[in-house]
Prior knowledge:
The protein has one helix spanning 6-12; strands at 16-23, 28-36, 42-58, 73-78, 86-87, 99-100, 104-108, 111-122, 125-128. By secondary structure, it is mostly beta strands. A hairpin with a 2-residue loop joins strand 8 (111-122) and strand 9. The chain is globular.
Amino acid sequence: MSNSFHPILDTYSRGTINAINFDMDFDKISVAISNKSIDDHIEQAEIVFEDVKAFYYIDHDLPSDMQIKGENLNSISYDLYGFGEFSAAHAKSEDEAFVSIPNFAVSINDSSLFIDANKIVINNQEFKVR
């Protein structure tokens, strides 16, 4: 398992979303992307976030049901130290509040999907991040 996936993420960061699937039974979120290569060939890619501890979707312009097929992907970012602390807005008490520090950010138009994951798989190539 390697951990040098930043250039690979950058390759797909301006693609078009085909689908996002949430499989919480197996702690996975997958993103299917279409991307034009240098020679205008359409490349298909799948990015799977594994061992997902939490995710947070911040919706600015998209419908709340996340119909995002065909939407442009602005970026996929990774930060070793995370993008700040996130927690559920409606926890009944501080003891019930689960705080997470997402290490991935997927930006789609004006919306963001923050993911706290321990592993990423890009086109069947596995990278451990924690």
